[in-house]
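re the bet — no i am not wrong, look at it urself. input seq straight from the record:
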Amino acid sequence: MRMPHQQETPLVEMEHIEKLFGGVQAVNDVSVNLNAGEVVGVLGHNGAGKSCLMRILSGAMSPNEGTIRIKGEKVDIKSPHDARALGIETIYQTLALANHLDTPSNFFLGRELKTLFGNLDDRRMLEESSKVLHRLNPNFKNLQDPVSSLSGGQRQVIAIARAIYFNVKILIMDEPTAALGPSETAMVSDLVKELKSQGIGIFLVCHDIHDVFDLCDRVMVMNRGEKVGLHDIEDVTKDDVLSLIIKGKLPDTWSPKADVALQ
């Protein structure tokens, strides 16, 4: 049964975003929104513009044109620091973890807790990171080992737990299950569902179409810098989405899946 879209103000509204690199239009007049407790998949071939669009939201890149609103308020995101202040966190495929540091040090990297005397408060950082990590994964151990010794799934848990601890409202996840085995992929999928239930809005940049249909409420497809489709996941099939990715358009005979079911 089709559910009506939420009526409250979206968490994110990106309107008519454009990004040029020399004469190349990497993002061309793209608009998309994101609601609380919603996962929007962002798909497209390499070079389609999806990562560029997300970097603009994360503050890693500035648009040439367009407007971003957070909870209805127009914002100017000039840096990742600005994004974090607005409750926007990004988990990249590379995770940006310092391999030689342990879990608490990575957890608070750049936002270290200090004692009254200005020294690093290692004990408190261990306690705080342990609480959040064990809430997400009760079996998480070896917090004081270098993260280079951890599995890909455990490293993803650190990145996700860090976002939760710092009160993320909007999460950009770039290929979160890439290079993970089946059990670790399932664990990350469960974490995404848990974040969604907490009202966090997620943009999921992903190549795995199975993950998209398992986790996403809507899917946006980009092709050569343009948005070629934005659909409720219940309205499209995997073949429809593949057609958008490859050809930049839906099949000629397409009609919304939910409408067909009502006929």
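see?? Strands lie at 12-21, 24-34, 39-43, 65-70, 73-75, 88-91, 170-174, 201-205, 218-223, 226-232. told u. also The first strand starts at residue 12 and ends at 21. so pay up
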